[in-house]
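Translate structure to sequence.
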């Protein structure tokens, strides 16, 4: 009785002698096998993230971009002056140049960019899912996009406002003249909501005629399906030039909203957002310091401490941020300063000839301002 009790208490692991060795070895083997199988099962059951999901949120987007050897940039591709792809597949525009500036800073190669055309509706999902590294697509910075849509907005690259285009012979001169009009607009934009707010404020009824595609929206206006079309003013100015009879249309003087257009990156990767942010500020600061692609070689020899630090000749601003110390010089060499970017895409060197207006530097009465590079 005593024996039985003891042996049961000591149990399997406490038996002595070779008779007891065999079951212990089998048990150890089984335990090992079981642990191995469990680990295997765990690895198999763990959802393997899609390559694009792996880099969202807290992940290291810089590492992904550098590893890939090129930047994936979401643009419209349909908006001359901002992002437009011609028949030869060549991209141009202010938004395109922002993508190229990032590639220049990271790879010393402005062409290390793969562009993705995104319409208004698709653009945020493409960023949230990690399909694009940056969204550079005439996108208005708003509170809900910044927070609920989980984007991180970068510095504003174009201060815009919503406008209205009509036929010159239409007698529509002001917003009140739009009473009971059919008004064309693109869905998935801030445009629809702004129009509704402005019309409600004045107790004016109207009929929104909306399309998901920008070409469908402008074609509908051209075909006379609406008396007016509303969009960002810059977009109206550039798209007007593509109508079959531009001179018969006018972009009215008034502006009904604030549309600060800014690139965006996904939320939660502050290293990546810092890098993109300071690459954009580089173009503005270069204009502020009178450094352009034309005089860069001379400016690199400057004795001015501010210029030397900015261009990475002295100090370690770039290196400390995790990029090449001469990242600013790379941007200026390949893309130029903000004035050069503006002039060649929207300003005096183009057929649009958009005045700088609010997009002048702060010291010239505009809103373009870069914090100190120090
Ligand atoms: N800035 C506004 C409007 C942006 C927008 O998508 N505008 C249209 C109308 S011109 C456009 O660019 N469409 C081009 C496209 O869908 O590719 C926003 O962020 O919502």
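Result:
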């Amino acid at each position: 009785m005593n024996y039985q009790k003891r042996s049961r208490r000591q149990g399997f692991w406490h038996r002595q002698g070779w008779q007891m060795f065999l079951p212990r070895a089998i048990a150890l083997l089984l335990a090992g096998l079981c642990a191995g199988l469990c680990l295997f099962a765990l690895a198999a059951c763990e959802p393997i993230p899609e390559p694009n999901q792996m880099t969202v949120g807290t992940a290291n987007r810089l590492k992904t971009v550098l590893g890939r050897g090129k930047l994936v940039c979401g643009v419209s591709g349909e908006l001359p002056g901002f992002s437009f792809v011609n028949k030869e597949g060549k991209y141009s525009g202010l938004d395109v140049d922002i993508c190229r500036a990032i590639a220049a800073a990271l790879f010393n190669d402005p062409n290390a960019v793969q562009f993705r055309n995104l319409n208004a509706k698709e653009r945020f999902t493409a960023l949230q899912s990690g399909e694009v590294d940056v969204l550079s697509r005439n996108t208005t910075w708003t509170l809900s996009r910044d927070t609920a849509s989980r984007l991180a907005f970068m510095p504003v690259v174009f201060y815009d406002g919503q406008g209205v285009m009509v036929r010159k012979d239409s007698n529509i001169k002001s917003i009140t003249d739009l009473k009971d009009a059919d008004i064309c607009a693109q869905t998935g934009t801030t445009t629809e909501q702004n129009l509704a707010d402005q019309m409600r404020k004045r107790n004016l009824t109207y009929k929104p005629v909306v399309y998901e595609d920008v070409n469908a929206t402008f074609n509908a206006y051209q075909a006379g399906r609406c008396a007016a079309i509303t969009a960002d003013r810059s977009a109206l100015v550039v798209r007007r030039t593509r109508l079959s009879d531009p001179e018969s249309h006018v972009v009215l003087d008034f502006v009904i909203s604030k549309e600060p257009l800014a690139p965006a990156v996904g939320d939660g990767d502050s290293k990546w957002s810092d890098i993109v942010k300071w690459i954009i500020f580089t173009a503005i600061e270069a204009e502020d310091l009178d450094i352009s692609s034309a005089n860069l070689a001379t400016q690199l020899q400057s004795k001015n401490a501010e210029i030397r630090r900015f261009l990475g000749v002295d100090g370690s601003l770039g290196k400390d941020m995790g990029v090449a110390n001469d990242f600013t010089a790379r941007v200026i060499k390949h893309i130029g300063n903000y004035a050069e970017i503006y002039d060649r895409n929207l300003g005096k060197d183009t057929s649009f000839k958009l005045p700088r207006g609010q997009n002048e530097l702060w010291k010239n009465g505009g809103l373009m301002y870069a914090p100190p590079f120090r």
